[in-house]
Specification:
elongated; two-stranded antiparallel sheet; 41% strand; alpha+beta
């Protein structure tokens, strides 16, 4: 995917120390992933990559908002994101398996694709239950929902 190349960091040849990266995440970022549930996005991602020999510390900072469907009324729900997520990247010749917070690369790797990490961290910021504050849902939809519940209760009594 050529459009995703902006999320690749060539780490071979980087000097030890801090390296800063920045991305603006919009709706188009999520269009490559079906069923993400993201209707719109305005998220600023700052990454500080600290290189120390064969070890990289990545510190992602996410600030912005996502637009999702409310689980209750299906109207747009704006979720504010403000979080920091660390990730360790280590070089290993043993073919070790990556975990949630440590990513292993081989000596032949020369770049790091952070697209999936950005996506994962954003998706992990979304709560399981995505609903408007009490009284903020679409009134018409809530009225229809109430009518359906009453009809179902009547059917159960018969």
């Amino acid at each position: 995917m050529k459009a995703l190349s902006e999320y690749r960091i060539a780490f071979r040849g980087l000097s030890d120390g801090n390296h800063d990266y920045h991305w603006e995440i919009s709706k188009s970022f999520f269009e490559n992933i079906p069923d993400s549930g993201i209707r719109d996005a305005m998220v600023s991602v700052d990454l500080v990559l600290v290189k120390s020999g064969r070890l990289f510390e990545l510190n992602f900072v996410f600030k912005g908002s996502l637009t999702l469907a409310c689980d209750r009324c299906l109207d747009d729900l704006i979720l504010v994101i403000n979080q920091v997520n660390p990730l360790i990247v280590r070089e290993s010749e043993k073919g070790e398996e990556s975990s949630d917070d440590i990513l292993f690369v081989t000596p032949s790797d020369y770049e790091l694709d952070v697209y999936q990490s950005i996506y994962d961290f954003i998706m992990l910021s979304i709560p399981m239950r995505r609903v408007h504050e009490e009284g903020q849902c679409n009134a018409e939809m809530m009225e229809r929902f109430q009518d359906i519940q009453i009809d179902e209760a009547d059917d159960e009594l018969k």
